[in-house]
Design a protein that fits this description.
Layout (H helix, E strand, L loop, with lengths): L1 H12 L20 E2 L5 E3 L3 E3 L6 E8 L4 E15 L2 E5 L5 E5 L5 E3 L5 E4 L5 E9 L7 E7 L3 E4 L6 E6 L1 H4 L18 H8 L3 E6 L18 H4 L23 E5 L11 H15 L4 E5 L7 H13 L5 E4 L16 H19 L41 H18 L5
Parallel strand pairs: 13-14, 13-15, 15-16, 16-17
Antiparallel strand pairs: 1-2, 2-12, 3-11, 4-5, 5-10, 5-11, 5-12, 6-9, 6-11, 7-8, 7-10
């Protein structure tokens, strides 16, 4: 991802064109602010509107008149300077907050203004997370120190996790005191962090894959619900515009709530894979075996049918023995979620980082296992191809890259 952006900047310098890095984000810069050449936005009065271009919204968000509202399980993240920050909400809701990559602190509920002060006078990273399904955070903006800045976000791959209560983060009553819904404890959220990726969860307790089943009032399955803006909620739900962002990978953990004898599961799962491919032509799709093994054979069949049809970026993941300890016979414990997250991250790394540019904090590991014999394509072939439009500048670009390489080699410390 970083190399893509570096190449893009080089091409821009040469007057050439390239596919832009990252997804578009809302932006409205107040007249009294200053935008620096490095993308930093300086706020003389410290008041940051929710539409600041440097605030990165992960997952599904919808713009309102004076705020932005989140859906499903996502978060926003922003880098800023100064010694304090206040988060302004339209209404209180259940959130988790992290500063500078530290431990997440839960707020049940968060106040309409959350204040964090006495910070070191340097660059900080703030993350505000929807704690569970139906949180619907309404974010209005930030208050920074006078003269402080927001800074452009780091480029990262995006992983979207699709599932039911297990992916959403329901733990159930546990001996360690953990209970209830908390998406930050989910194997999905933890795996995303281990991968040092942007990540979100499209998940809801009780949801099935097929329409017409389950205990939710509307009985709308994920095959349909995924393409709506919101999780189940009162009132009409708008369609989701899948062009708003494009995940690099989608990880599907569905089937636990569909009846074992359901005649519609296989067709619905296959249809879901087809719909995702239509929406995201280049996204890698990973179909997990549900932790309890429900519909595992049907999921393998659906993956095989897609690969036989020529879709070589869909993979089956065998999760046998990943989650054997539960709080209630179904939902994995907090410890099991953490262990499953590590296994999932190890599986996904070669696909997200095919050139062995693994996250700095991740421990070295062997290549991910082949997807249960269904599709064992080399992960190196699964990376997205950067399409670059060049008009007569390839030779100049090659020389410039060569010069950068030589310079880097010269700056390397000598061995002793």
């Amino acid at each position: 991802m970083k190399m893509i952006c570096i190449v893009g900047m080089l091409l821009s310098f040469l007057g050439l064109s390239a596919v832009p890095c990252g997804a578009p984000v809302p932006s409205r810069v107040a007249a009294q602010t200053t935008v620096n050449t490095d993308g930093a936005i300086v706020y003389p009065d410290g008041a940051v509107d929710w539409q600041d271009a440097n605030i990165k919204y992960i997952g599904r968000w919808a713009e309102k008149d004076t705020y932005i509202q989140g859906y499903w399980e996502g978060y926003f993240e922003v880098r800023f300077t100064g010694t304090s920050v206040k988060v302004k909400l339209r209404t209180g809701c259940n959130l988790a907050v992290s500063l500078d990559g530290g431990e997440l602190t839960e707020y049940r509920p968060a106040r309409t203004t959350m204040s964090f002060s006495d910070l070191e006078n340097t660059v900080h990273t703030l993350r505000v997370v929807s704690l569970a399904q139906s949180t619907f955070p309404k974010f209005k903006g930030l208050i920074l120190d006078k003269g402080a800045s927001t800074l452009p976000p780091a480029e990262k791959p995006l992983v979207e996790f699709v599932g039911d209560s297990i992916t959403e983060g329901y733990i159930g009553s546990a001996t360690d005191g953990t209970q209830g819904n908390a998406g930050i404890y989910s194997f999905a959220y933890q795996a995303g962090d281990l991968l040092e990726a942007n990540h979100n969860q499209i998940a809801f307790g009780g949801i099935t894959m097929a329409d017409g089943y389950g205990n939710l009032p509307e009985k709308i399955g994920m095959v349909t619900r995924y393409f709506q803006l919101s999780e189940p909620a009162a009132g009409d739900v708008a369609a989701w515009d899948t062009t708003r962002y494009t995940p690099d990978a989608i990880v599907i953990n569905m089937g636990t709530n569909d009846p074992p004898s359901s005649p519609d599961f296989y067709a619905s799962y296959l249809s879901f894979l087809q719909k995702l491919r239509e929406a995201y032509p280049d996204t890698m799709l990973f179909a997990m075996r549900p932790f309890n093994g429900s519909h595992a054979l049907n999921i393998q069949r659906a993956v095989k049918e897609r690969t036989d049809a020529g879709d070589m970026q869909v993979y089956y993941m065998d999760t046998t023995d990943w989650a054997t300890d539960t709080t209630d016979g179904l939902h994995p414990t907090k410890a099991v979620n953490t262990a499953a997250a590590a296994k999932l991250a190890d599986f996904l790394k070669p696909y997200l980082y095919p050139e062995a540019i693994t996250p700095s904090s991740a421990s070295p590991s062997a290549a991910a296992p082949s997807p249960a014999g269904i599709h064992a394509e080399n992960p190196e072939n699964a990376s997205n191809t950067l399409l670059i439009g060049i008009s007569g500048g390839m030779a100049v670009l090659g020389i410039l890259i060569a010069l950068l390489f030589v310079r880097k080699r010269r700056n390397l410390p000598s061995k002793k």
